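Appendix B, example 12.
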Amino acid sequence: MPSTILRPLALGLSSSLLMLVQAAVAADGEAIIQKGGASPAAMPCMSCHGADGRGMAAGGFPRLAGLPEAYLAKQLADFRAGRRESPLMQPIAQALSEAEAAAVARSYAALPKVNVKTGAPERPREGSGAWLALRGAWERNIPECTLCHGPSGVGVGDAFPPLAGQSAEYIEAQLRAWRGTPAQPGGRKTKPVAAVPPTRRNDPNGLMQHIAADLTEAEIKAVAAYFAGLGDTTEPFDASQHRLR
């Protein structure tokens, strides 16, 4: 066979082989979670999110295990693009290649989902975290959290992630990130404090920014504590909880 034909054929085979090798490496999301990505700046995910992917409540690091793959991939893309700000996560997301980010999302999505406490919920006390979660505050145009995040907060589809199983610290922090910090007028002995804009702007149609802005600090703490108390339970896993995902 003429060398002029063999040369492009060999180049084609080399390119295909290289792509296969790259795909194999990139597909190893578990290795990235445990050891980090190809870039030194892409630190091991488990350092903050735990060896089991259930997060570290004390540090405010969220549970990633069992979250929808498309949701996780979007969050990494949003960190990379600055739609979701974090001095810790933005450099890591930017250091991951697109293939590595996809592999990490796929690996975390394959881990066990949250197992929520079963049984009929007690009648919520008006104004409590449970009341906001289950009934909302429609007089202020705040829908119940479960309307979007599903029964018991187990999540719906790829856009509305589980709230059950996340720590109160993390849920509180995200609500404040969507809300930002309102300006504080100065007093006789204090200086005025300028408003801080939201650091998270990646919710569908700005829905969470509106809700968070209308919640009081006490309500943020109450609703976060409610969802944090729902999972994980030691009861047998109930896969039917996740029928909407």
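The chain has two domains: 11-110, 129-228. Residues 11-110 form a domain with the Cytochrome Bc1 Complex; Chain D, domain 2 fold (CATH 1.10.760.10).
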